[in-house]
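User: I'm new to structure prediction. If I give you an amino acid sequence, what do you actually give back? Let's try with this one:
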Amino acid sequence: MIKNFLEIKNVTFAASKKNKVNNVTLNIEKEGEIICLLGPSGIGKTTILRSIAGLEKIHSGKILLKNKIISSNEIHVEPEKRNIALSFQDNSLFPHYNVIQNIEFGAERNKKKKKDLKIDDLIKLLNLEHVKNKFPHEISSGEAQRASLARSLISKPDLLLLDEPLSNVDQSFKEEIQVKLKKILTDLKITTIIVTHDSYEAFYLGSKCGIILDGQLKQYDDPYNVYHFPNSVEVVNFLNRGILIPAKVIDEDSLESEDLGIIKGNFLKRYPKGSEVKLLLQPEDLEHDDKSNLKLEVVDRKFRGTNFIYTLKTPSDRLIPVFVHSHHIHQHEVDEKFGIRRPITIDHIVCF
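Assistant: Good question. You get back a string of structure tokens that encode the predicted 3D arrangement of the chain. For your 352 residues, that looks like this:
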């Protein structure tokens, strides 16, 4: 019986002295799970994929796929024997093959596997019909990226590794591709690791997300917990989905802010009464109320289609983001006053 589909145990991934991720441990429990690795450029995310694929050797720890060691100090299974497909961010198509021939090459890799995907279906799904007979130099980077993705998918690998798979895809088309990609991976139970710098993409595609910062795997959890329960200030700053404001704990379910007054809720972690903490405020934590006596100055307003994000300045010159649904009739302009509903209650209070 397979304990975990993929196990990475205390592995240091290193392409160079500067490009290194230290002592990584993570598991993919079940076949068909999708995990996403998030982090800034140059942090070592691609090195992790290359090492899992067997293109780089590891010097500490071990990697197991389906209970078999594929990388360790003593064992290094060659890439072609791992049944792992790696789709690079850059164009990795064979230049002397046209698009359909490139995809067919992926199908040749696993003739023995039962095919649940047809090449024509994949080409249609990834919107490649108009370029299927063209060569890599004749198509756009986004089309080449989708063709490379199709070639990897058709090979039905045990493990699929995708390096920024949609980075060159137009924004207008990206969400559609994300939906299709997730459906394919889920329906065919293709276990997948996706490297991306786009947190929205990671939160949608991944059943779990790993945050890589400062040469470490800082957090590995489901997307909801990564967003709402970040485990460090570094993760908060990387995700850039809120701010930290000073506050004082006044009892077991409330704290006090100089700018906002009393805030009640459920503490994620207990702090002694009187503790000085940094409270995480995310845009959806505060509610707008025109009739409130707590009013802050609007310094910016961003329209996001379904919502507005107002940036408010507090008396102590801190900037706080607040989410308001776009159907809210009364829109506030810069320099106007904006009311915050009292009492302030936050379901889960995250402090550092």
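You can read the tokens as a compact description of the fold. Here is one thing that stands out. Residues 171-188 form the longest helix (18 residues).
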